[in-house]
What does this fold into?
Amino acid sequence: MASPSSSYEGHFEHSALFEFSTVINSSFDLQFILGHILLTIMGKLLSSRGAAVLRGADGTYRCEMVKGIPSGVGECALAIRTLPRGLQYIERINAQRHPWVKYFREQGLEILLPLRSESGPIGLLAFGKRGTHQRLASRETTYLRSLGNIAATAIDKCRTIAELKVVNRRLDRKIQELNTLFDLGKEFGAVLDPDKLVRLLVFSLMGQVGVHRYLVCLKDGGDMRIAASRVDGPVPQPELLSILTKVKVPVTVEEMIVTGATDPRPVLGSLGLHAVVPMALQGQIRGVIVLGEKLNRDPFTSADFEFLSALGSLAIISLENARLFKEAIEKQRMEDELLIARDIQKGLLPSVLPVVPGIDIAAANFSSKQVGGDYYDVVLLDEHRYIVAIGDVSGKGTPAALLMANMQATIRALVPLQLSLSELTARVNNLMCQNTGGDKFVTFFWGALDHRNRTLRYVNAGHNHPYLLHGDGSMERLDKGGMILGVLETLIPYEEGEVVLREGDLLVLFTDGVSEAMNPANQEYGEERLEAMVRGSGDQGARALIEAIHRDIQAHADGAPQSDDITMMVLRFLASSPGVR
Amino acid sequence: MSEFKIAQREKDAVHVLELKGYLDAHTAPALEEAFQTLLKNQRFNIVVNCKDLSYISSAGLGVFMAYIEDVRKNNGDIKLSNMSPKVFNVFDLLGFPLLYEITKEEQDAVKKFHPGK
It folds into this structure.
């Protein structure tokens, strides 16, 4: 071979290096770069074999490209601990220190060019025997080293860019996930319809994770309810799904640990479902998202699960908010209804009592927080007689108020019939029985007051016994009568009691809201204390006595809220002669 | 509040939906309604022109997922066209090009429904 002048050769080498550098730095395609490097050096060496081995991120070396060799170098990863320094003949490398060189020898590779960049070892290039069988001249060695340096830098750059692309893509995806959460957070906050919330959740699952098959289960009380689903087959029983509430962290169906007797995995598998993501609120599992395969068939990653958990939490919080909001509205509606019921009940009680000659009469009803069913009335029977009545309907709220209204209407309708109190009570009872179906009852006391002979005929149907304090200090309890109203149709006639009233006598009717008024220590006001108030009333007027008793009850209650209405009626019989109008 | 509009027209027996504005969780139900109507009216050859679509969230993508199976069951397809790079990036990130045909121009998408011509 002719040997050209060294200056010409030097010029040629420089321009070749420049061209090489330009070509391989113009591309970010690793395969192109490696191919160009191998072919350039093979051309220079006149060698028919070349191999490029690169160091991976895990530190192992893999053959990335070969030329002129049918198979690769080594079967898989090459355990290269330290890269030899400088251009080497493979035969000179100590095979005991570097066992991997045998793979190069097997493929007839003789020259080894390590690649290093500023960031460390990159890999190595290996080439077969030179066509000229010549040893490398020192000039050639220098030239090859220069090529190696340029190649190492280009490969390094190319891989860094590839890595950056991956990282960028991952980052883009994270941003996309955050956008999704933000988007949903915004929208969930404004939507109070649970069905619409679930629909949005499903859209986001399909869009973000790329799934076609899903089940969204929500816990309603203790039961699981399927809120949305699209699966390959009939939707499984909620009992089966309740097992899924034991799953505390997102998991693939494959990796689910099943402890109980029932294994939901075969069913989930047959429905094309792959992953289970619990929806937790304050550590409590409130629902489960079950997902099918991803669009790209990739397995679910921990990053997927992180996103799905966040999405699930967001959804469950919003669903809970929607539920609480609905509950608050419902509660407000019920409170409004109770207020109406209370107004109705109050309206039914006589606001002004008829003036009864010779009797100082007063009545009052103090409502509790809840609506009770207390009742009192004073009705003119004929020109000589008045009816006084007090009653207490069992239960509270609207039903009690309605029954009380019914009771009042019944009494007012029956009173003009001119029957005995006993007979009237029997009829009232029968009517109440028909109206309540026996699940509600009324304690009731009523009396007919006759001016002519100053007598009170009365019937007590299971009501608190009224006090009759005579002017001489003796006291009677009005307890004659019979069964409470509204439970059983009248079988035994109601007994009528009769008392004669004298000047100075005091009649006190009350409901159990008085005797059972509670203090904060849950102690009742008690009949003894009421009796003491009655006995100690002196010559107080009816209104004044009611107010005094009410004050005493309040002193006892000491601010404790009362669960029952407090109702009293007081009649004081004056000196004036009967019948005077 | 984000604006979103859908214009509709027929072109060579293909139904074209033109999306405009922001397709997010708030506006996704509008697109859902459009697809529901198309399915009810037996329109299964659908091209979605995204020329004026400025943003799409995953809830918006989810709507496409929700209807593609029903459309294909009826031998139809939903094809997409004219995406801005920003919108395409979202589709691409979430792997949608695997499942949906996305063309540069609307007419290319329309033509794909008539491979003979």
Summary: Chain B has a mean pLDDT of 91. Chain B touches chain A at residues 24-26, 28-29, 32, 57-66, 69, 89-90, 93-96, 98-99 (CB under 8 Å). The two ends of chain B are 44 Å apart (CA to CA).
